[in-house]
Structure to design on (468 residues):
């Protein structure tokens, strides 16, 4: 077991040094607790000491319970594996074997059988936090394992430390100013975990989302707690501003990450929340947090590649590559791909183009649509469609075609959330196509535009992209 370096803190130690926590809270949909009581309590029925030195899979039904378990286990467990709520049960044996899991923390009875078959220690947990009945003495640097949010196949297991996860967080400002964080993300994913750590390490309150809540109910609950800082993906924000409850919150800071933030959503949010600073950040599970853009413009300035403190970045073969202390250590598994190149850079797979002195994200390398041998990035086309004043959001996908290989198809949600009458459909389709033709090369212009009432968004907060 590695002893704790002088410059490293566990979550419980960080909270203990964050000043008066009695007025700071973790707000869940069904339970709330002060950070002071949380750091002194247990969600594990007093079994946290039995998990010392173990590789622990945290697979709970509630973010509230997950948060409590993370604070209790960090610095005690050898390894914490965060199980996202949408992980298919059939992938759990792979995760258990790959991460060397020898203990499971869960409130799910269905995992008992899995536990028995794999001969691992099972620790039940509860959202009822009670005073801890054992001495908690963090003495190791716990390894944090996050699962990637791939849409198909087995997940990749990404290894971090608390230091790499918290590398972008300024922990010197732990007092002063009423800041209450919230996020549409789930904290068992990288984006949500970042907000959870940002709140915990600076001793601020946090309002957790809940998958059982509607967007409107979550926004109303966030408003009732006076949320000042809130984050989510562009898809989550597009859904949010369609809700009548969107005006219930009056945030000082709005953050977007996880997907390409196009100019339309940035402009919309700035108009919706004129008092707020609207920022978009680039981060990934593997590369960590790279930078934040605060000038209300899509893309980023080339100066960010050279002037972002403690982060080295470059564009190579049109993809953004990142090297810093915030990047993950490796993937786990005997046949896992190499995470970093020989120089320590992570290839993010995110394609960028330099236009008029600014870099713009155009899509994922693995999401390219091939139209007669020419490359189309769905996100680039979506950014143009989303500029139309009657469009709320769009999804561009491929449809197989025997001549060109694929056709570009756009599914479009209108800002009124209602499909126009038949006589108006063609006019609106032509308006959107004209906008595309004015901006895009001919082969990128959608061959088909469908008006749909909604688009599917995954648990990760990102649109589900499946080509037909």
């Amino acid at each position: 077991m590695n002893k704790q370096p002088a410059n490293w803190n566990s979550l419980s130690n960080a909270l203990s040094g964050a000043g008066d926590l009695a007025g700071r809270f973790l707000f869940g949909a069904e339970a709330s607790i002060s950070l002071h009581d949380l750091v002194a309590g247990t969600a594990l029925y007093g079994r946290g000491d039995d998990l010392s030195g173990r590789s622990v899979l945290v697979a709970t039904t509630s973010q509230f319970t997950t948060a409590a378990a993370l604070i209790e286990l960090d610095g005690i467990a050898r390894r914490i594996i965060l199980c996202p709520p949408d992980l298919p049960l059939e992938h759990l044996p792979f995760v258990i074997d790959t991460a060397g899991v020898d203990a499971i923390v869960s409130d799910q009875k269905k995992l008992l059988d899995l536990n028995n078959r794999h001969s691992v220690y099972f620790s039940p947990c509860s959202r009822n936090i009670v005073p801890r009945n054992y001495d908690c003495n963090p003495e190791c640097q716990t390894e944090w394992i996050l699962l990637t949010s791939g849409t198909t196949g087995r997940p990749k297991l990404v290894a971090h430390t608390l230091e790499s996860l918290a590398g972008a967080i300024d922990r010197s400002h732990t007092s002063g100013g009423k800041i209450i964080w919230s996020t549409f993300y789930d904290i068992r994913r990288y984006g949500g975990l970042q907000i959870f750590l940002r709140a915990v390490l600076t001793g601020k309150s946090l309002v957790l989302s809940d998958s059982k809540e509607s967007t409107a109910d979550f926004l109303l609950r966030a408003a009732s707690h006076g949320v000042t800082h809130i984050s989510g993906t562009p898809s989550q924000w597009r859904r949010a501003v369609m809700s009548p409850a969107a005006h219930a919150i009056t945030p000082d800071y709005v953050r977007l990450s996880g997907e390409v933030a196009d100019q339309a959503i940035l402009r919309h949010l700035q108009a919706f929340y004129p008092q707020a600073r609207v920022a978009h950040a680039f981060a990934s599970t593997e590369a960590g947090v790279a930078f934040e853009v605060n000038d209300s413009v899509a893309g980023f300035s080339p100066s960010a590649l050279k002037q972002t403190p403690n982060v080295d970045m470059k564009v190579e073969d049109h993809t953004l590559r990142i090297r810093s202390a915030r990047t993950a250590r490796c993937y786990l598994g005997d046949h896992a791909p190499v995470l970093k190149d020989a120089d320590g850079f992570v290839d993010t797979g995110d394609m960028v183009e330099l236009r008029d002195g600014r870099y713009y994200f155009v899509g994922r390398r693995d999401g390219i649509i091939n139209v007669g041998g020419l490359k189309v990035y769905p996100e680039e086309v979506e950014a143009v469609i989303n500029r139309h004043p009657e469009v709320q959001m769009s999804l561009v996908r491929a449809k197989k075609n025997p001549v060109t290989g694929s056709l570009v198809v756009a599914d479009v949600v209108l800002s009124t959330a209602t499909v126009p009458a038949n006589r108006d459909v063609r006019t609106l389709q032509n308006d959107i196509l004209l906008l595309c033709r004015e901006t895009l090369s001919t082969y990128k212009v959608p061959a088909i535009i469908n008006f749909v009432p909604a688009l599917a968004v995954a648990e990760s907060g990102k649109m589900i992209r499946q080509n037909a």
